[in-house]
Amino acid sequence: MGSHGGTVVKNSAANPEFGSSNLPAAPWKPHGGAGQDVGRSCILVSVAGKNVMLDCGMHMGFNDDRRFPDFSYITQNGRLTDFLDCVIISHFHLDHCGALPYFSEMVGYDGPIYMTPPTQAICPILLEDYRKIAVDKKGEANFFTSQMIKDCMKKVVAVHLHQTVQVDDELEIKAYYAGHVLGAAMFQIKVGSESVVYTGDYNMTPDRHLGAAWIDRCRPNLLITESTYATTIRDSKRCRERDFLKKVHETVERGGKVLIPVFALGRAQELCILLETFWERMNLKAPIYFSTGLTEKANHYYKLFITWTNQKIRKTFVQRNMFEFKHIKAFDRAFADNPGPMLEVKMQVEYMSFSAHADAKGIMQLIGQAEPEHVLLVHGEAKKMEFLKQKIEQEFRVNCYMPANGETVTLPTSPSIPVGISLGLLKREMAQGMLPDAKRPRLLQGTLIMKDSNFRLVSSEQALKELGLAEHQLRFTCRVHLHDARKEQETVMRVYSHLKSILKDHCVQHLPDGSVTVESILIQAAAHSEDPGTKVLLVSWTYQDEELGSYLTSLLKKGLPQAPS
Amino acid sequence: MEASEDWLVESLRLYQDFHAFDLSGATRVLEWIDDKGVFVAGCESLKKNEILHLILPLRLSVKENQGLFPERDFKVCHGGFSDKPVFDLKHVPETRLLLTSGLPGCSLQVWQIAEDSDVIKAVSTIAMHEEEESLWPRMAVFSSVAPGVLHGARLSSLKITDLESQKIMYASGVGDREALSSLQVLGADTFAFCCTSGRLGLVDIRQKWAPSESPGPGSGGGRWCAEVRSRDQDPGPSIASLGSNGQLCLLDPRDLCHPVSSVQCPVSRPSPDPELLQVTWAPVLDNCLAISGFDGTVQVYDVTSWGGIESQVEPLFTHRGHIFLDANELDAAPLVTTHIWHPCKPRTLLSAADDASLHVWDWVDLCASC
Q: Is pLDDT at A107 greater than 80 in this prediction?
């Protein structure tokens, strides 16, 4: 399809009516809050007209409305349910789902909320816990209620790993394993040939209880990745474990008892597994206690979602229940009264930094796996990430963006638009004789009809018929002045010889009436009305032969070769 | 897996602190910037190498190990890209400038650490004016009001170039084409050199070339490197010279012709890559030095009682972390490419290996209480 026939648009980015992909990705601006160590995640993505909200996090550092995202950013008027096609929650950490009940029940959203089954099971527990502390203990107002949490969760649709979910007939989503915590997933959002992958929080090195994140070579237009730890080179898991074991060992050697307060779901399991693995080697005799409460529930969910854990865990689980430990007992308050020094291991502060996030190496690995066209980094500080940006751009030859909170990024894409060609048109082209040649593109004339979401290329006749229009012929005529004092017939002969020698591939004829034809193009010579030394060539062609006609004209304008006298 | 778990338990006893990191590429350089930051740089020939300015984990900056530290990761403070492999890197003190050297050895690269971003940018080159195919110039920095870099791949090409004007301030002016393995600035006007043959020299740049020299170990053969102890208030031999056959010599600068001691270190020999040999004096501990470049270990020796020739010695401590934490268990054992002592923490070292690992370790002196 050439630029002479039909109206095919090659670069859809130039025409916003179809195909262009505005992908504003706007992390929410905190209400007057400044930069934070642990941020909150809430990103809006627009893909080919579909609007998806990624995560709905709460900022743990604020005690007032600043902890919630400013949803008026999304749309000034109009209902969120109408504007958003869906909401996706990546995992159960409150900085990713903490504002969800507020958003769905207090601001108002009734559309689908997608998350993985473990997230669906664990979210409401954490939300309720947080609500209790905020409202019952701290007496905060304007907070969501228990009923709101329940109502919110009713809108949840569970998504399993690698299962494509059709949100509507154009938008589909798919979840990938992210590691990090139980149930955490990375999501691919796809509309036609355009897609975005959002990582949420992930890590690329396997834990003792969770595997590493993995994605296939899905080649999204955009990969949105967290970059909180992008400028970090992480201490190996081995060394972190070593430190923990050292602390335990030293305590026990001194005759103390070890109590591990547990706040983080998942880490408890990790520590238990670690201690159990090294117990015998280290000759530990003293008992190790685990404080109950959240841990029990956690253990329950880990057993429930065993398929979401690490291969190794699953194998061992078959042999013996890895979540019931030989040497680790539940802590009963009564024990505190026993004689002997009690040492509370404040390792959770040390261990918290062990939160499994991707570091620079991990981010590069993920980009290498997914092969996106563009990369967008969230949660980092722009000044401190210029090097990472360059690294990504050089290594993968992609564009890398680092929007600030509240900023919108628009990415041009060139989506492929499938166009059906009518059989009649194809047959006519084939009838011209020449076989298709990949190295010699041919000019095809046709008419593009766009109706509903359908694109068809048909012959002009068919288009005219469908549209009920009569055909009009368009003919161009050009005058070329030549210096030639001879008679018109001789000029014509010269033109004929000249063209015959050059245009060997075309049919050049000298007609009895004194005109020359090149294919269907007509050339006639006439004397100039005022100057007998000049001849005027009239070159005339139809719209279909425009290219050849223009070429002939410029050729003739160069003049004729000197005839031998 | 078993062996590494056993070693991990052993390590509880052997190390006060131990951190292991994976760089994106192996480094052959470790250079301090104040006592909190360190530079590493990639050394591969066919790809873009990274030069990184890393900030040590906060945990290590603390005087006493309280164990309650959240920060145990390296932070990448600045980074840059080098097309050439980097075999040596020197920071110019009191400036934001870096110098790197590698193959091809026709120039040194000057870099600047940005102030308003995290980028290290190449700013200029210093041409070497010598055609060298496989040798790369060694470097040492004369830091003064107008800093200059001492450089050369051979004795004959030894020069000092002023960094600002790029003028040559000093040249050895000799025709001797012996290849160099190390250069070390000792004072405002003196430097030491060590040739690959083991020949050592101390040079005063105020005089025409007339170094005090040691002829080198002649019979030993192999490739040599050396280091002069910076703390010159200690009596005793202050020059250590290490050969690829495992021989370690101690020399007194006042009598370079007669080594004070010469020992055979228990290492696998010869070194698989003698260019990676390294011997370093401990900046805080008395009479301690470390060697690496023979295998995946770093060995620490106490040389206090050394006085004889050819005696067998045992290291005070051997760091085996690179062997036991080796990620690629099926590949060849890793080789330590470089190591460096912490400037103020007595028993803390950093070591890097060819599997891109970087360790920071603080070993326990098990004999201390004896």
A: yes
Statement: the pTM of the whole predicted model exceeds 0.90: no
CA dist., res. B67 & res. A350, Å (int): 8
- Contacting residues for A77 by C-beta, under 8 A, at least 6 apart: none
Phi, psi of A267 (to 5 degrees): -65, -35
Q: Give the pLDDT confidence of B230-259 residue by residue, as tens digits.
A: 866 666 678 999 999 999 999 988 888 888
Question: Which pair of tokens denotes residue A132?
Answer: 């209790």
Q: How does strand B278-281 pair with strand B357-363?
A: unpaired
Q: What dihedral angle (degrees, nearest 10) is formed by the CA atoms of A381, A386, A387, A389?
A: 100
Interface test with B, best of A236, A241, A364 (most B CBs within 10 A): A236
Report the alpha-carbon distance of residue A49 to residue A8 in Å, rounded: 22
Residue A554 CB partners (closer than 8 Å, separation 6+): none
| Token output for A440 | 């010699």
User: Taking Cα atoms as reference points, which of A30, A9, A33 lies closest to residue A19?
Assistant: A9
The highest-confidence range among A115-119, A178-182, A226-230, B308-312, by mean pLDDT, is A115-119
Structure tokens at B125: 């080159």
Closest CA to B79 of B111, B47, B125: B111
Catalytic residue among A105, A128, A140, A226: A226
Between A215 and A381, the more confident residue is A215
Buried/exposed code over B131-154 (b: 16+ C-beta within 10 A; e: otherwise)? ebeebbbbbbbbbeeebbbbbbbb
Which residues of A lie inside 8 Å of B (Cβ-Cβ)?
A: 229, 231-236, 238-243, 245-247, 249, 277-278, 281-282, 346, 349-350, 352-353, 359-361, 364, 383-388, 390-391, 394
Question: Are the Cβ atoms of B22 and A247 closer than 8 angstroms?
Answer: no
- pLDDT of residue B193 exceeding 60, the answer is yes
For A239, the closest chain B residue by CA position comes to B19
- Each residue's pLDDT tens digit, A49-95: 899 999 999 887 777 777 888 787 776 667 888 899 999 999 999 98
Cα dihedral A73, A79, A85, A88 sign: positive
